[in-house]
Write a structure and sequence with these properties.
alpha/beta, 10 helices, binds zinc ion, 231 residues, binds 2'-O-acetyl adenosine-5-diphosphoribose
Protein backbone atom coordinates (compact mmCIF):
# COMPACT_ATOMS: atom_id res chain seq x y z
CA UNK A 1 0.00 0.00 0.00
CA UNK A 2 1.67 3.20 -1.16
CA UNK A 3 0.35 6.39 0.36
CA UNK A 4 0.93 10.05 -0.51
CA UNK A 5 -0.27 12.60 2.05
CA UNK A 6 -0.56 16.27 1.11
CA UNK A 7 -0.71 18.65 4.05
CA UNK A 8 -1.59 22.33 4.29
CA UNK A 9 -1.83 24.99 6.95
CA UNK A 10 -4.86 23.32 8.57
CA UNK A 11 -2.70 20.50 9.97
CA UNK A 12 -0.64 23.01 11.96
CA UNK A 13 -3.60 25.16 13.06
CA UNK A 14 -4.11 23.30 16.34
CA UNK A 15 -0.42 23.83 17.11
CA UNK A 16 -1.04 27.58 16.98
CA UNK A 17 0.40 28.30 13.52
CA UNK A 18 -2.08 30.59 11.72
CA UNK A 19 -3.58 29.41 8.42
CA UNK A 20 -3.80 31.72 5.39
CA UNK A 21 -7.40 31.93 4.22
CA UNK A 22 -9.40 31.36 7.42
CA UNK A 23 -10.91 34.41 9.14
CA UNK A 24 -7.96 34.80 11.55
CA UNK A 25 -5.48 33.72 8.87
CA UNK A 26 -2.24 35.33 7.71
CA UNK A 27 -3.75 36.73 4.53
CA UNK A 28 -6.29 38.63 6.68
CA UNK A 29 -3.65 40.99 8.03
CA UNK A 30 -1.54 41.06 4.86
CA UNK A 31 -2.18 41.03 1.18
CA UNK A 32 -0.36 37.98 -0.19
CA UNK A 33 1.01 40.11 -3.06
CA UNK A 34 2.69 42.43 -0.53
CA UNK A 35 4.83 39.76 1.09
CA UNK A 36 4.73 36.56 -0.95
CA UNK A 37 5.95 37.52 -4.41
CA UNK A 38 9.39 38.18 -5.92
CA UNK A 39 8.13 41.69 -6.78
CA UNK A 40 7.34 42.42 -3.13
CA UNK A 41 10.87 41.37 -2.20
CA UNK A 42 12.30 43.60 -4.88
CA UNK A 43 10.33 46.71 -3.89
CA UNK A 44 10.03 46.33 -0.12
CA UNK A 45 12.58 43.77 1.05
CA UNK A 46 12.51 44.95 4.68
CA UNK A 47 8.74 44.34 4.98
CA UNK A 48 9.08 40.88 3.45
CA UNK A 49 12.05 39.95 5.67
CA UNK A 50 10.17 41.16 8.78
CA UNK A 51 7.11 39.07 7.88
CA UNK A 52 9.15 35.86 7.51
CA UNK A 53 11.52 36.67 10.41
CA UNK A 54 8.46 36.91 12.67
CA UNK A 55 7.05 33.62 11.41
CA UNK A 56 10.46 31.90 11.81
CA UNK A 57 10.79 33.21 15.36
CA UNK A 58 7.24 32.06 16.17
CA UNK A 59 8.24 28.44 15.48
CA UNK A 60 9.98 28.44 18.86
CA UNK A 61 6.57 28.73 20.56
CA UNK A 62 4.74 25.88 18.81
CA UNK A 63 4.80 22.09 19.06
CA UNK A 64 3.61 19.27 16.80
CA UNK A 65 0.01 18.20 17.50
CA UNK A 66 -1.62 14.74 17.40
CA UNK A 67 -2.07 14.98 13.60
CA UNK A 68 1.67 15.43 12.95
CA UNK A 69 2.46 12.67 15.46
CA UNK A 70 0.00 10.28 13.82
CA UNK A 71 1.66 10.76 10.40
CA UNK A 72 5.06 10.01 11.96
CA UNK A 73 3.55 6.85 13.48
CA UNK A 74 2.21 5.89 10.04
CA UNK A 75 5.68 6.37 8.55
CA UNK A 76 7.18 4.04 11.15
CA UNK A 77 4.72 1.38 9.94
CA UNK A 78 4.87 1.99 6.18
CA UNK A 79 8.47 3.20 5.79
CA UNK A 80 9.26 4.26 2.24
CA UNK A 81 5.67 3.57 1.19
CA UNK A 82 4.54 6.81 2.83
CA UNK A 83 5.49 10.20 1.43
CA UNK A 84 4.36 13.43 3.09
CA UNK A 85 4.24 16.36 0.68
CA UNK A 86 3.66 19.55 2.61
CA UNK A 87 2.79 23.07 1.53
CA UNK A 88 3.76 24.17 5.03
CA UNK A 89 6.96 26.02 5.72
CA UNK A 90 7.07 25.10 9.43
CA UNK A 91 9.12 22.15 10.73
CA UNK A 92 6.38 20.41 12.70
CA UNK A 93 6.33 17.21 10.62
CA UNK A 94 10.06 16.74 11.21
CA UNK A 95 9.76 17.56 14.91
CA UNK A 96 7.01 14.95 15.18
CA UNK A 97 9.44 12.37 13.74
CA UNK A 98 8.55 12.20 10.02
CA UNK A 99 11.59 11.71 7.80
CA UNK A 100 10.10 11.45 4.30
CA UNK A 101 8.79 15.01 3.95
CA UNK A 102 8.96 17.18 0.85
CA UNK A 103 8.49 20.91 1.47
CA UNK A 104 7.14 21.97 -1.90
CA UNK A 105 6.74 25.64 -0.82
CA UNK A 106 10.13 25.89 0.93
CA UNK A 107 11.01 26.17 4.60
CA UNK A 108 11.22 28.95 7.18
CA UNK A 109 14.33 27.33 8.64
CA UNK A 110 16.21 27.72 5.36
CA UNK A 111 17.76 30.71 3.62
CA UNK A 112 18.21 30.98 -0.14
CA UNK A 113 21.14 32.97 -1.51
CA UNK A 114 20.12 35.21 -4.40
CA UNK A 115 23.80 35.33 -5.43
CA UNK A 116 24.88 31.68 -5.53
CA UNK A 117 21.46 29.91 -5.07
CA UNK A 118 22.78 27.90 -2.08
CA UNK A 119 20.14 26.82 0.44
CA UNK A 120 21.42 26.97 4.02
CA UNK A 121 19.75 25.89 7.24
CA UNK A 122 18.78 29.11 9.01
CA UNK A 123 17.32 29.81 12.46
CA UNK A 124 18.10 33.53 12.93
CA UNK A 125 16.63 36.68 11.39
CA UNK A 126 17.46 37.53 7.77
CA UNK A 127 16.44 41.20 7.99
CA UNK A 128 19.83 42.35 9.26
CA UNK A 129 21.64 41.23 6.07
CA UNK A 130 23.77 38.31 7.29
CA UNK A 131 26.33 36.89 4.80
CA UNK A 132 25.70 33.70 2.83
CA UNK A 133 27.64 30.81 4.45
CA UNK A 134 28.70 29.61 0.97
CA UNK A 135 29.66 32.77 -1.00
CA UNK A 136 29.66 35.51 1.63
CA UNK A 137 27.32 37.87 -0.20
CA UNK A 138 24.64 39.60 1.90
CA UNK A 139 21.80 38.57 -0.40
CA UNK A 140 19.92 35.95 1.58
CA UNK A 141 16.15 35.72 1.15
CA UNK A 142 13.58 33.49 2.80
CA UNK A 143 13.68 30.04 1.16
CA UNK A 144 9.96 30.25 0.43
CA UNK A 145 8.33 29.55 -2.92
CA UNK A 146 6.47 32.75 -3.67
CA UNK A 147 3.54 33.25 -6.05
CA UNK A 148 4.85 33.04 -9.59
CA UNK A 149 7.75 30.73 -8.60
CA UNK A 150 8.02 27.02 -9.29
CA UNK A 151 7.48 24.70 -6.30
CA UNK A 152 10.30 22.42 -5.18
CA UNK A 153 10.55 18.69 -5.89
CA UNK A 154 7.76 18.49 -8.49
CA UNK A 155 9.45 15.57 -10.29
CA UNK A 156 9.50 13.45 -7.15
CA UNK A 157 5.96 14.44 -6.24
CA UNK A 158 4.55 13.54 -9.66
CA UNK A 159 6.41 10.20 -9.59
CA UNK A 160 4.95 9.42 -6.16
CA UNK A 161 1.43 10.35 -7.30
CA UNK A 162 1.80 8.01 -10.28
CA UNK A 163 2.72 5.10 -8.00
CA UNK A 164 0.39 5.64 -5.05
CA UNK A 165 -2.64 3.54 -4.09
CA UNK A 166 -4.06 6.15 -1.73
CA UNK A 167 -3.85 9.95 -1.78
CA UNK A 168 -4.88 11.84 1.34
CA UNK A 169 -5.21 15.63 1.57
CA UNK A 170 -5.17 17.16 5.05
CA UNK A 171 -5.94 20.74 6.07
CA UNK A 172 -5.67 22.55 2.77
CA UNK A 173 -8.16 24.86 1.07
CA UNK A 174 -7.32 23.64 -2.43
CA UNK A 175 -6.86 27.24 -3.57
CA UNK A 176 -3.23 27.10 -4.72
CA UNK A 177 -1.96 25.15 -7.73
CA UNK A 178 -0.17 22.88 -8.49
CA UNK A 179 -0.94 21.29 -5.06
CA UNK A 180 -4.68 21.79 -5.60
CA UNK A 181 -4.45 19.59 -8.72
CA UNK A 182 -2.74 16.62 -7.07
CA UNK A 183 -6.08 14.97 -6.27
CA UNK A 184 -7.05 14.93 -9.94
CA UNK A 185 -3.65 13.51 -10.90
CA UNK A 186 -3.98 10.81 -8.25
CA UNK A 187 -7.45 9.90 -9.56
CA UNK A 188 -6.12 9.74 -13.12
CA UNK A 189 -3.33 7.40 -12.02
CA UNK A 190 -5.87 5.13 -10.29
CA UNK A 191 -5.47 5.96 -6.59
CA UNK A 192 -8.24 6.14 -4.01
CA UNK A 193 -8.56 9.65 -2.59
CA UNK A 194 -9.53 10.93 0.85
CA UNK A 195 -9.84 14.45 2.23
CA UNK A 196 -9.56 15.34 5.93
CA UNK A 197 -10.45 19.00 6.48
CA UNK A 198 -12.29 21.24 8.91
CA UNK A 199 -14.48 22.82 6.22
CA UNK A 200 -15.30 21.85 2.64
CA UNK A 201 -12.39 22.83 0.40
CA UNK A 202 -12.51 24.11 -3.17
CA UNK A 203 -11.69 20.60 -4.39
CA UNK A 204 -13.81 18.47 -2.04
CA UNK A 205 -15.93 17.11 -4.88
CA UNK A 206 -12.85 15.53 -6.53
CA UNK A 207 -12.29 13.13 -3.61
CA UNK A 208 -13.77 9.65 -3.24
CA UNK A 209 -14.39 10.49 0.41
CA UNK A 210 -14.32 13.70 2.44
CA UNK A 211 -14.34 13.83 6.24
CA UNK A 212 -14.97 17.03 8.20
CA UNK A 213 -13.37 17.90 11.51
CA UNK A 214 -10.16 19.04 13.20
CA UNK A 215 -6.99 17.34 11.98
CA UNK A 216 -5.96 16.56 15.56
CA UNK A 217 -8.93 14.20 15.79
CA UNK A 218 -9.42 13.01 12.20
CA UNK A 219 -5.80 12.14 11.38
CA UNK A 220 -5.05 9.86 14.38
CA UNK A 221 -8.40 8.10 13.78
CA UNK A 222 -7.64 7.57 10.09
CA UNK A 223 -4.11 6.29 10.85
CA UNK A 224 -5.51 3.79 13.38
CA UNK A 225 -8.02 2.64 10.77
CA UNK A 226 -5.40 2.26 8.03
CA UNK A 227 -3.00 0.37 10.29
CA UNK A 228 -5.67 -2.19 11.17
CA UNK A 229 -6.38 -2.80 7.48
CA UNK A 230 -2.74 -3.08 6.30
CA UNK A 231 -1.64 -5.29 9.19
P1 LIG B 1 -5.35 27.81 3.70
O1 LIG B 1 -5.31 28.81 4.79
O2 LIG B 1 -5.70 28.29 2.33
O3 LIG B 1 -6.36 26.65 4.07
C1 LIG B 1 -6.35 26.02 5.31
C2 LIG B 1 -7.41 24.93 5.32
O4 LIG B 1 -7.30 24.23 6.55
C3 LIG B 1 -8.85 25.45 5.21
O5 LIG B 1 -9.55 24.67 4.24
C4 LIG B 1 -9.43 25.21 6.61
O6 LIG B 1 -10.81 24.84 6.57
C5 LIG B 1 -8.58 24.04 7.09
N1 LIG B 1 -8.41 23.98 8.55
C6 LIG B 1 -8.31 25.00 9.43
N2 LIG B 1 -8.12 24.55 10.67
C7 LIG B 1 -8.10 23.20 10.59
C8 LIG B 1 -7.97 22.12 11.54
N3 LIG B 1 -7.79 22.36 12.84
N4 LIG B 1 -7.99 20.85 11.07
C9 LIG B 1 -8.17 20.59 9.75
N5 LIG B 1 -8.33 21.54 8.83
C10 LIG B 1 -8.29 22.83 9.22
O7 LIG B 1 -3.92 27.08 3.71
P2 LIG B 1 -3.24 26.18 2.57
O8 LIG B 1 -4.25 25.39 1.83
O9 LIG B 1 -2.13 25.44 3.20
O10 LIG B 1 1.69 29.30 0.01
O11 LIG B 1 -2.65 27.30 1.61
C11 LIG B 1 -1.92 26.91 0.48
C12 LIG B 1 -0.80 27.88 0.22
O12 LIG B 1 -1.32 29.21 0.12
C13 LIG B 1 0.22 27.99 1.33
O13 LIG B 1 1.22 26.99 1.26
C14 LIG B 1 0.81 29.34 1.13
C15 LIG B 1 -0.45 30.12 0.82
O14 LIG B 1 -0.31 31.25 0.02
C16 LIG B 1 2.84 30.00 0.04
O15 LIG B 1 3.15 30.72 0.97
C17 LIG B 1 3.70 29.80 -1.13
ZN1 LIG C 1 25.67 32.61 -1.63
Amino acid sequence: MRVVVLTGAGISAESGVPTFRDSDGLWEGHRAEDVATPEAFEYQPAVVQRFYDARRAALADVEPNPAHLALARLERALGDDLLVVTQNVDDLHERAGSQHVLHMHGELLSALCVGCRARSRWTEDLGDHPPCPRCGSAELRPDIVWFGEVPYQMDRIVAALQRCDLFVSIGTSGAVYPAAGFVQSAVTYGARTLELNLLPSEGSHFFDESRRGPAGVLVPAWVDELLTTVR
